[in-house]
Amino acid sequence: MIWSLQGGESPIHTIQRNPRVTGLSCIRCGVLYREGDLFTGCPACLKKGYPSSLKVEYASDMVRENDGDGRSMMRYGKWLPYCRFPTLGEGDTPLLDFPRLADQLGVASFQIKDEGQNPTGSHKDRFSPLMVGRAMESGAGTLVVASSGNAGLSVASYAAFNGLGCVVISQENLNEGLRRAIQGTGAELILMKHPLERWHTMRRLVEEKGYFPATNYIKPPVGSNPYGVQGYKTIAYEICEQGGGEVPNVVLVPTSRADLLWGIKEGFHERMRAGRMRHLPRLVAVEPIPRLTAVLAGEDYRKAFTDGRTPLRSIGGNTVTWQGVAALRETKGCAMVIEMEEAQVAQSDLLRQGLYLESSSATVLAAARRLVAQEWIRTEEQVIAIGTSHAWKW
Q1: What is the pTM of this model?
Q2: Class of domain 95-120+228-387
Q3: Residue 66 has pLDDT above 70, yes or no
C-alpha cells in the first residue's frame, strides 16, 4: 500500500509499506502483536512490571532478498518496515580507517563509522525517516520527541521535510546552535529544568492532544518507536558491505537507552541468518555512568542509577532499557564507563587524526583503550567504533 503527503509547497513524499512485515513482537517475552502503535512497548510485560520494547517482524523469506540499487538507506527497503519512505539522503556513511590509532592500541585494525555525515549530523537520521513513515501511515499531524539535542534536530528536520508539525522537548542547557536549528525548522521547542520533566510533558501531549511520540515517555523506559529503530540495522548492513566480507570482532557504541545498540545487533543477526557473515561481533555499550555495567553485574534493569547528570549529555540519563541488556547478552558483549575527562582526551586525539566528533561520540576511543588494557580486546582483533555525531553543532 502507498501513501502520499503534500507538505505545503514541497513535493509529495510517498511511503510504501513492506509487504513482508507480519507484525510486532516483544523482545523479552516473545509475544506477537498485530501491526499497530503500542507506544509503551509490550503490554504483557508492562502489566507484569517489566517494560520491554517491541520489534518489527518479517516473513521468513525475507532472508533471500537482495539489496536494492543506489547508495542511500532506501536500498535496504526490502529489509525495513517501508520499501519507500521520505529521505534526506541518510545512510552510506564512510567507514574510516585509522592505522596509527590501531598501532597505538595494539590491535589489528581500528575503524570509525562516521555517522556525523548524515543530513543533520548524527545517526538519528537513520531513525527519523522510518518513524515519520509510520506517523504518516497512522495519519498523525504532529510529532513529539524528548531529546538532549541530536534526535530533536533530526525529528524536527524530517517533520519539516514532510509538512508535519513537531514539538521538541529538551533541557534548559541545550546549546544555542541546536536551539536555533530546531526552531528554524518551524518546530516548537519546550525547555525543561530536569530530564524526567520531559517525559511527563511528552506523555501529556500524547494522551491529551494525540501527538505521535518518536521516543519513550514512561519510566522505567522502553526503546523509541520500533519502526524507527529498524533504521539502525542499516549500520550493520553497511559495515558488512564496507568490510568486503570481513566482520569486525568488536563494535563499540555510545549508549544511553540502547536504540542504536539494539538496532546494530539486529542488523548483524539478520545478515547472519542470510548467510552473509559467519560470526557476531561482540558489542560494547559505552556509557558515562554505571548503568548497563551495573545490570550486567546483577542489578535490576528497572531501577534508577544515580541522578543521571553528566556533561556527556547525548548518552546521559539514569535508566536503561531491556533492549540494551539483551543486545549485550546476545553478543557476549560488555559495558564500559567513560567519564568526561577521558572523553575530552579522546576527542582531542581524534581531532589530531582529522575527525571531530562530539565528546559523547569520542568515548568510543577511550573505551577501546580501556578494554585493550584489560585484554578484553585482543591484539589480533579488528575493532569498529560508531562515531554517532560530529561536534560542529555542539
Answers
A1: 0.96
A2: alpha beta
A3: yes
How far is residue 386 from each of residues 178, 232, 239, 252, 261, measured CA to CA in Å?
22, 11, 10, 6, 10
User: By three-state DSSP, how is residue 168 classified?
Assistant: strand
Say what percent of the chain tops pLDDT 90: 88
Q: Give kind and range of the element (H or E) at residue 114.
A: strand 109-114
User: Is 251 in contact with 384 (CB distance < 8 Å)?
Assistant: yes
Q: How far apart are CA 321 and CA 41, in angstroms?
A: 11
Kindly indicate the confidence band of residue 21, based on its pLDDT and cuts at 50, 70 and 90: very high
DSSP 15: E
CA angle 330, 332, 373 (to 5 degrees): 155
Cβ-in-10-Å burial (0-12, 13-18, 19+) of 99 comes to exposed
Of the candidates 2, 6, 4, the one whose C-alpha atom is nearest the C-alpha of residue 17 is 2
DSSP 227-291: HHHGGGHHHHHHHHHHTTT---SEEEEE-SS-HHHHHHHHHHHHHHHTTS-SSPPEEEEEESSSS
Cell triple for residue 327? 543486545
State the Cα–Cα distance between residues 263 and 283, nearest whole angstrom.
Answer: 11
373: exposed, middle or buried (Cβ count in 10 Å: 0-12, 13-18, 19+): exposed
Which grid cell is 313? 549529555
CATH 3.40.50.1100: which residues of the chain? 95-120+228-387, 124-224
Cell numbers representing residue 73 in the block: 538507506
Looking at domain 124-224, its CATH class is alpha beta
Give CA torsion, residues 171, 289, 320, 121, to 10 deg. 50
Helix (H) / strand (E) containing 205 = helix 195-209
